[in-house]
Specification:
Elements (H helix, E strand, L loop, with lengths): L39 H19 L3 H13 L2 H5 L10 H24 L20 H10 L9 H7 L3 H9 L8 H16 L7 H10 L13 H10 L29 H6 L2 E6 L8 E4 L4 E6 L1 E2 L2 H16 L8 H12 L3 H9 L3 E2 L8 H6 L12 H10 L5 H28 L4
Parallel strand pairs: 1-3, 4-5
Antiparallel strand pairs: 2-3
């Protein structure tokens, strides 16, 4: 294996910078054992061939090219080592070699998943990255493995390697579009898109500064992610400050645990009680909000694409929130999953969210989704994103009676008639020329 460090659970020592934007450290590198479980020789061969291909395609003397890529990693070595909590005993040369080879393999997996194998330029029959030989499901599995909690690679290394000539050539050769699934979306947003917006050596410092102010996603988050899993957490929770204004914490709610309050009813039951489900704009659990209207009420939920692999991502994010020792109010993904488990209890519940464009999933997976959600191990959560307040509002909601609805409709009708009368009078006395 390529110098893989086997992490231990007791080596996780968190460093939390703020309540909602955690920083953390892990003791393991990217776990290549997840590429081909129980086939160590095949794993080493795949990673080694991917690295040698980068050297060959970059051109020049191999030793010089190798040094070029390792120098790129050396520029961010201090930042990269800081991700790992234990004092790293590896020598500088070994650290640079491992990070460079692993980083180049991960980037090829990410780019292949986003743009297909053609931009990489492998021979068509290559079993991993060739146009005829590649296995889409295998690449998909590798992408999910990039977010495995116990072995994360520093994101700063991936970004630095993306600036090198091989990967710049791949970017120019491909067509890149933001995907809808969470894993690839995180890789696109935090690794690929920044390089598309700001090509190396092609923009002046002034244009780069202007690009920062006019690129929406470059300023979405108050913290730069330090690993792929951290990037995924930021993506799924959404930008800080995006919470709906409709939710207010009552004085006695802040100290309540989410799990100490009675659960909300299922989607079908809430629909029967007069609560409609609407898709919130954009992705992010902080988009959840409840709005009471004159005739009914709306519960807004973020749009999300869910498939089998999404469950593994959810579990890694839940474990991540525990590993970095967030307080119960900061475990936003755990709170979101707990909330969705309460809402989704049958396929009929899933169909409502699919119809409203809140969940995008394969029809065959609709039956499995409720059970898959309930199989996730969520930990104790508190009033994350005011979800306690939202649940309280839902439970207290009473559907307006027919008489109340008629009164409201009369009030609306009288108001519209008054507006029309005023407009007609003004038009008569002050005609437009």
């Amino acid at each position: 294996m390529l110098g893989i460090c086997c992490p231990r659970d007791d080596s996780l020592q968190p460093k939390v910078e703020s309540k909602h934007l955690p920083n953390y450290s892990f003791s393991g590198y990217f776990d290549h054992g997840r590429i081909f479980p129980d086939l160590e020789d095949k794993t080493e061969d795949v990673v080694d061939r991917a690295w040698k291909y980068v050297l060959k395609e970059t051109g020049g003397k191999e030793s010089n090219t190798r040094r070029l890529y390792e120098d790129a990693v050396a520029r961010v070595e201090t930042q990269a080592r800081a991700v790992y909590v234990e004092g790293d005993s590896r020598s500088k040369d070994e650290f640079l070699r491992i990070m460079t080879q692993q980083g180049c393999f991960i980037l090829q997996v990410a780019l292949c998943s986003l743009g297909g194998p053609k931009p990489l330029g492998y021979p068509p029959d290559d079993p991993c990255f060739g146009e005829r030989g590649w296995d889409k499901e295998q690449i998909k599995y590798w992408v999910t493995s990039i977010f495995y909690i116990k072995s994360q690679i520093p994101l700063v290394i991936l970004k630095e390697l993306m600036k090198e000539s091989f990967f710049q050539k791949v970017l120019k050769s491909g067509k890149w579009k933001r995907p809808k699934d969470l894993a690839r979306m995180a890789l696109y947003d935090f690794v690929v898109e920044p390089m598309l917006d700001e090509p190396v050596n092609q923009r002046s410092s002034i244009r780069r500064l202007l690009g920062f102010f006019f690129n929406r996603r470059s300023r979405r988050f108050h913290q730069e992610p330090i690993t792929p899993l951290h990037a995924l957490w930021l993506l799924l929770t959404g930008p800080v400050g995006s919470r709906g204004k409709a939710n207010h914490i009552e004085e006695d709610e802040d100290d309540h645990l989410y799990t100490t309050l009675s659960s909300v009813r299922s989607i079908m039951e809430l629909q029967a009680a007069g609560i409609a489900f609407k898709s919130a704009e954009g992705l992010g659990t902080r988009q959840i909000k409840f709005k009471k209207r004159m005739l009914d009420a709306h519960l807004y939920l973020p749009c999300i694409y869910i498939e089998h692999d999404t469950m593994a991502l959810f579990q890694n994010l839940i474990d991540y929130e525990t590993a970095v020792d967030l307080d119960t109010n900061g475990r936003e993904i755990s709170a979101y999953i707990s909330f969705m488990k309460e809402l989704i209890r049958s396929r009929d519940d899933v169909k409502v969210l699919v119809t409203q464009g809140i969940i995008d999933t394969n029809p065959d997976f609709e039956n499995e989704l409720p059970g898959k959600l309930w199989s996730l191990d969520t930990f104790e959560v508190g009033n994350s994103h005011n979800l306690v307040a939202i649940r309280r509002q839902i439970r207290r909601y009473v559907r307006p009676s027919i008489r109340a609805k008629m009164v409201n409709l009369v009030v609306i009708g009288v108001f519209l008639t008054l507006v029309q009368t005023i407009y007609t009078a003004l038009s008569y006395h002050h005609p437009l020329h």
